[in-house]
Specification:
It contains six helices and seven strands. With 184 residues, the protein is α/β, with parallel strands linked by helices. β3 and β4 form a beta hairpin. Keywords: Flavoprotein, FMN. This is Flavodoxin/nitric oxide synthase.
């Protein structure tokens, strides 16, 4: 069994719901980035001890939230010592639009993992892209680099699309399974 952490920022609670489903699939612990873009010293220690880290952030204005970016920039001290070298990484994002430039956010997360010398895990699931597909279907947004989720702008936290939550649990499990295989 591998130790997986999901470190995420959630501005309005929607991304937190997605993070909880990713964590459920991975049997992972959650680390919430505060509204000020900070995590605790204990959180940093837990991330250092993890076998896998899954990043999560809403997509705001075509990229990660500033709070997530502050966290990412703070990892430069770890980068300098290669402290996360060869860890397994994954990532997810959530926004109101079906696209909303989510891909840019995922590439930012993938680049952060790569800067650390990490091993990135793709979604590993084909898209639900038939005429009959709905928001209830897994991977209905057609992600491949990581998990894409959608929460309509006028929906509460219970408005995260059902198919995206199914996909979140699948992705969390996939990251944890790959981390366990590499650890063995």
């Amino acid at each position: 069994m591998s130790k997986v952490l999901v470190v995420y920022h959630s501005g309005y609670g929607h991304t937190k719901v997605v993070a909880e489903h990713v964590a459920k699939g991975a049997q992972a612990e959650l680390v919430a980035i505060s509204a000020e873009g900070d995590i605790t010293d204990a959180d940093w220690a837990a991330l250092d001890a993890a076998d896998a880290i899954i990043f999560g952030t809403p997509t705001y204005m075509g990229n990660v939230s500033w709070q997530f970016k502050k966290f990412a920039d703070a990892t430069s001290k770890i980068w300098f010592t290669r402290g996360w070298q060869d860890k397994v990484f994954g990532g997810f994002t959530n926004s109101a639009s079906p696209s909303g430039d989510k891909q840019v956010t995922l590439i930012t997360l993938q680049t952060l993992a790569s800067q650390h010398g990490g091993i990135w895990v793709s979604l590993g699931m084909p898209p639900s892209n038939t005429l009959e597909a709905t928001a209830e279907d897994p991977n209905n947004l057609g992600g491949s680099v990581g998990l894409l989720a959608r929460s309509p702008a006028n929906a509460g936290v219970d408005g995260v699309q059902k198919g995206d939550l199914i996909t979140a649990e699948h992705y969390g499990k996939r990251v944890a399974d790959i981390a366990a295989r590499l650890k063995a």
